[in-house]
Amino acid sequence: MGNKVINILMAGLGGQGVITASDIVADAAFRMGRDVKKSEVHGMSQRNGSVTSEVRVGDAVLSPLIPRGEADILVSVAEDQTDLHRYMLRPGGIVIAPSNLDGVKLPHTKTLNTALLGVLSRHLDWPEDIWIEALLARLPENLHDINLQAFALGRKEG
Amino acid sequence: MKYSDRLFLSGNEAIALAARNAGVALGTGYPGTPSTQILEEFARLGGKAQWAPNEKAALEVAVGAAYAGASAIVTMKHVGLNVAADPLFTVAYTGVSGALVIVCADDPGMHSSQNEQDSRNYAVAAGVPMLEPSDSQEAYDFFAAALDLSRKWQTPVLLRVTTRICHSKTIVRPKWLFPEPITPHFERDIRGRVMIPGYARPAHRRLRKKLADIAEWGESCDLNRREEGSRALGIIASGVTYQHAREAAPDASFLKLGLTYPLPFGLIREFASSCDRVMVLEEGDPYLADAIRANGLKVEAKPPQFRFGEMNVDRVRRILVGDQSEEPPPPAGKPPELCKACPYRPVYSVLHRLDCIVTGDIGCYTLGVMPPYEAIDTCLCMGAGITVGLGLRHVLPPDQARRVVSIIGDSTFMHTGLTGIEEMVYNPPPTGHVVIVLDNGTTAMTGQQEHPGTGRTLSHERAPRIVIEEVVAALGVKNVHVIDPSRDSAGFERLLTESLSKSETTVIVARHICILAAGNISEYEKAIAQCEAVRSADLAEAR
């Protein structure tokens, strides 16, 4: 397979849990012993503005930033942010957006990010228990149950 | 402490861990994106860390600690180093007895900054050795190396990082550091520490000698590294640009520089002569390219269009093939805005309605410039909200001068607002002046850090509180008011209108806790109250 790097771009608006979701993805990759880099910007841009976070996973990752047109998967937590970031996708790249969960009743609207991670998990051959470990490690305990539910829903229905 | 051998850390976290593992006795700084989390993480790991009112105070405190033989870290963003530049240039002369590492975080592309200054120029200007890590592993390793270098050569060292180092997470295998603890003590060295002209002249000569020695050491130190590849293309790079370039040009030969001041010109010359084509790749100013060319070496540099913004893999590819066509602009995402329930909204609404000329300052309140208010007319640097307003008032015709209002946040006020108030009291414009301090009880922009006006330390424990209205009254401001404009918007408008009509100096403290911080602040206060209750119960029992 060589040094194939998987590039996952996560997008949304400030406050939607984009960065938390990308932390979970990166943590899962880390737990599998892969090389992983993750990049985002903090500060001014986070005040209700567009937020992106980039996760790159492989045997050896160099730049922390995904080159234009090389994202394998775009996970968009805000439907209206999806088109904005499509240019980053490689030809045939996958888009995961809230519409993947149409008709699915989430335990809480704030769990949309983890539900979309459930959908993402279907596209990666990473063991489910690694996802769960990362999710539990990255979220406060009082939010564990609803996020586990949301993740399971996304993984099943998305 | 549990020692993990494989961690996933941001550059900021890696620096904090290295500082902790290397026995740094004191961490100080002022919050500034992207540097803020270093001290917070250092404190979380058990290190002694504190926020200073500004970067100049922070550096001076760290210098004192390093004069006493301790290891100290001081952190700031690039523009903070401008504030700390005064002590920087002279501590280069005096040197230190212990170790002093200044972490300066640049923000190419200006994600959260007012300029994209390249702080590497400071290393040259002040004569301070500089290290540039390219990922979190090197952030850890280079911090430790910077500390060693500082102690060995008795010089402050600049660890220059950028947004993509600070806020990218990469894998770190932390080397075991834990040196023998050092007991600080004061050793008198009047000629070395007191920079009167007679002692500073030899100190400058000592500095140049020291830098020459470090340059020689740098020729063979392991901070710089050659990676052999094709002879057709050799790339000289440092920092995160190295990672982009390695990805864009996997077959090239590399000279990867970690020590970027003083530069190892022997090593560079040797590398350059071994390759057919040599390209210098860097973000920001042509710092490396200019220095290398000034040394008589023929190297290619990036075209001027790549001086702007961050470097990335795509841009490196363009540079390497000589593609100077216009780059596709990044898509315009949703711009940031004031929080929907921000207590400052009513202030901007009044300023907009009264058609004030507003000299603003640095913080999230600068977002008052965005529609619908567009109620900020200038934003220059920390503290300038007050002083630029005074300058306008001094020269504008009275009908316009009376519309000038200065806006400054509480943390910014503590940073460099006080000197502006002194200026206002000492040199009042003929029409007087009106300053509004937007006091939301936190350093909101950078992620809710404490400051001298919150009454809590960096770790959110009880500290003496500096009260803004008391300070400005004590400094001699004629009229001082405190009001909550989100509770009484009409009252605020009346007060402002009245203040503008007077030819006197006025400070209005507009106070309402930041809505994002309110929950956390009440938790901190609850914890403090519990601690104090336990302490007084213990005291009563002891009696």
What topology emerges from the helices and strands here?
The complex is a heterodimer of chains A (158) and B (543).
Chain A: E1 6-13, H1 18-31, E2 35-40, E3 50-58, E4 71-76, H2 82-85, E5 89-96, H3 112-122, H4 128-138, H5 144-157
Parallel strand pairs in A: 1-4, 4-5
Antiparallel strand pairs in A: 1-3, 2-3
Helix pairs in contact in A: 1-4, 3-5
Chain B: E1 7-10, H1 11-21, E2 26-29, H2 37-44, E3 49-51, H3 55-67, E4 71-77, H4 78-83, H5 85-94, E5 99-106, H6 120-126, E6 130-131, H7 136-153, E7 157-162, H8 163-166, E8 168-172, H9 190-193, H10 197-218, E9 225-227, E10 230-238, H11 239-248, E11 252-257, E12 259-261, H12 265-273, E13 277-281, H13 287-294, E14 300-301, H14 313-321, H15 345-353, E15 357-359, H16 384-395, H17 398-401, E16 404-409, H18 410-426, E17 433-439, H19 468-475, E18 479-483, H20 489-501, E19 505-511, H21 518-542
Parallel strand pairs in B: 2-3, 2-4, 4-5, 5-7, 6-7, 10-11, 10-13, 13-14, 15-16, 16-17, 17-19, 18-19
Antiparallel strand pairs in B: 1-8, 6-12, 9-11
